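Researcher: Here's the sequence for the chain we discussed earlier.
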Amino acid sequence: MKKSTGVSGKAIRRAFGARVSPRKKRTRPEPRQYTLVDLERARDRVEAAERRVVNDRSNNPNRGSAGLERARLELSDIESQLRVRGLFE
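Model: Thanks. This is the structure I predict for it:
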C-alpha cells in the first residue's frame, strides 16, 4: 500500500500552469501588417539561405533546403500582402 505525501492533485496541476479561473475563448491574433523593411529583410534571408546551400560542403544534397524553402515562402507571403495593399508591384 502506497502512502500519500500530502500534496493534492489540484496543487500539482496549478503548479504546472492550470488556470484557476474558468477558461476564456482564445481570440485569434490579427495577421501581421508587413512593411517594405520586412520585404528587404526577407530578401536578405533568402539570399543568406541560398549562400548556405551553395557553400555547404557536406555530402547531403538536401541540407539547408528546408531553411531556403521557408525563407522563400515567407518572402512570397510578404510580397503578396504588399501587392494586395498596393505598396508593391
